[in-house]
Amino acid sequence: QVQLVESGGGLVQPGGSLRLSCSASGFTFTFSRLAMNWYRQAPGKERSLVAAITSAGGGTNYADSVKGRFTISRDNVQNMVYLQMNSLKPEDTAVYYCNAWDSYAYKDYWGQGTQVTVPS
């Protein structure tokens, strides 16, 4: 069972930066098999995809709202995924979730989420 634990959230002023981390564990295969994603959910809104990185790390994709400000990366040795968030805006306030997609087993896994707050 894949377990995901996020960290790095907090309160940051507009224009500031945060780096979210997601630690993956509990699997018997190599971490590089998993495609990794960051989602977020603001109060009263649906959960939405923020950034994605392929299993090998060669490809990334971003929501239009964060392009040029956020960067997703992964360390397939340390079993970690990161989301570097720069130029943060109040509309980035949300709970951020780490997600793993295993295309071999057709399963996905979720972390518990970490709160990011950017006051207006």
Number of contiguous helices: 0
As an assembly, this protein is: single chain
Distance between the termini: 39 Å
Major beta sheet summary: 7 strands, mixed
Helix content: under 10%
Element-by-element helix/strand order: EEEEEEEEEEE
Mean pLDDT over the residues? 95
Tell me the β content. Answer: over 45%
Radius of gyration: 14 Å
Keywords for this entry:
120 residues, mainly beta, four-stranded antiparallel beta sheet
Word description of this protein:
The protein is mainly β. The chain is 0% helix and 50% strand. The chain has no helices and eleven strands. Strands 2, 4, 5, 6, 9, 10 and 11 form a seven-stranded mixed β-sheet that branches. The mean pLDDT is 95.
Structure summarized in a few sentences:
The chain has strands spanning 3-7, 10-11, 18-25, 35-41, 48-53, 60-62, 70-75, 80-85, 94-102, 107-110, 114-117.
Present the secondary structure layout:
Blueprint: E1 3-7, E2 10-11, E3 18-25, E4 35-41, E5 48-53, E6 60-62, E7 70-75, E8 80-85, E9 94-102, E10 107-110, E11 114-117
Parallel strand pairs: 2-11
Antiparallel strand pairs: 1-3, 3-8, 4-5, 4-9, 5-6, 7-8, 9-10, 9-11
